[in-house]
Amino acid sequence: MNAFVAMILGVVEGLTEYLPISSTGHLILFGALLEKLGQKSEGSGSFDIVIQLGAVLAVVVQYRELLGRRVRGLVVRERAAMALLTALAAGFVPTAVAGLLFRKAIKAHLFGPLPVAAALIVGGIVMIVVERRRTARGEGGLVGLEHVTPKRALLIGIGQCFSLWPGTSRSMCTILAGQATGLSTATAAEFSFLLALPTLGAATAYETYKGRHELAQAGVLNVAIGFVVSFLVAWVVIAGFVKYLQKRGLEPFGYYRIALGLVVLVTLGMHA
User: What is the pTM of this model?
Assistant: First the structure.
């Protein structure tokens, strides 16, 4: 792996982590392409996981004021702070359990271009159908993180479990689940961003430990480049995506997912 490849992968991670188009799916597809070009090292799989920390840090920076208030509130057991902590815990637990139980099976059977393409297409169709129904019914949803109750958070966490299939998208699953519980799209997205802190943080720590020997092959400089680029791009995406969702819906992302999935299927068919 060279610095240019590390930078490209950082851009892909940062750009796709918080959009409902699947960062893992995109990294798998880019990885398959780069391997054909002879541009990826043996440690690239672990590299893809570690640069998620850059995207996680982007959430911390973007929501630093809110997180700062909530951390201070935890010290004095402030109600809003305790409520957010409980909600994040409720949302995190289902995915943590499912991830530990099915991690090996998922990596063995779903980490490939074909499963990713299928997930992209199916997810895109679901997004378009849900968005059109919400628009037809004039559903706005509850605005504000104070509406994310433990029950809603648990349901969002259960929805997040489906994102363990690469190509599905953690962002898509949590936003759609949030909408289903009555939250507005923007509020569901904001909670999705915050839920990334324990979810991606724990996943990254676990995968980094498991792949620590492989990671060394990617190179310290390349990891640093991927991390920084991922952080910067994700920070821009988070701020822009929330503003976008306050005015528009998810339907365009659904069309993108379907188009990309079809391109992958056609490409695989041509090389079969």
Answer: 0.90
